[in-house]
Specification:
Strand order of the largest sheet: 1-2-3
Oligomer: single chain
CATH superfamily: CBS-domain
Number of strands: 5
Number of helices: 6
Largest sheet: 3 strands, mixed
Structural class: alpha+beta
CATH topology: CBS-domain
Radius of gyration: 18 Å
Bound molecules: nicotinamide-adenine-dinucleotide
Length: 146
């Protein structure tokens, strides 16, 4: 089973998109739409102070009749943020996401932010791992004992 470190290295872009807590939710949505992503890390003075997602917007802004232009990210973000180290296994990350009902995990190597994994990244990794095993088994069944 892969580690999140190898999953991040396999991503086409390792850059983590972030936003300041003082930004508006509208600005956050514009960044998420521009990069086709569902979450932003909230950073202040180089520290992770929260995470804000499309779900936060839907449940804590729209459903509450609040305006995305007047609502600050710090009012909607989730904090503190659960994170993992680069050696964490995909399996454990899946369990963390399921237990805590979240879809994004920042990856920190010590204090350093080295990337972010989403549920889609983990699922994609598991699918490619399973396809590899299936090919191996098909090869074996076909008599390729080499
Ligand atoms: N084909 C792929 O490589 C791939 C990978 C991941 C997700 N997806 C698909 O995209 C859809 C939504 O994916 P999701 O639920 O995983 O969430 P998502 O839309 O937030 O994530 C999509 C991609 O953006 C990256 N991402 C998200 N937030 C980021 C940030 N702040 N900074 C940098 N990268 C960030 C994720 O790591 C992931 O690779 C799903 O349908 C999923 O299957 C496809």
């Amino acid at each position: 089973m892969a580690t999140v470190g190898s999953i991040i290295r396999a991503k086409p872009d390792q850059h983590v998109h972030v936003i300041a807590p003082s930004a508006t939710m509208r600005e956050a949505l514009e960044i998420m739409a521009r990069h086709n992503i569902g979450a932003l890390l909230v950073m202040e003075d180089g520290q992770i102070v929260g995470i804000v997602t499309e779900r936060d917007y839907a449940r804590k802004c729209i459903l509450k009749g609040r305006s995305s232009r007047e609502t600050r990210v710090r009012e909607l973000m989730t904090s503190p943020v659960l994170y993992v180290g680069p050696d964490e296994s995909n399996e454990n990350c899946m369990a963390l996401m399921t237990e805590n009902r979240l879809r994004h995990l920042p990856v920190l190597d010590g204090e350093k932010l080295v990337g972010l994994v989403s549920i889609g990244d983990l699922v994609k990794d598991i699918i490619s791992e399973q396809q590899f095993v299936i090919r191996q088994l098909e090869h074996y069944i076909a008599g390729g004992h080499g």
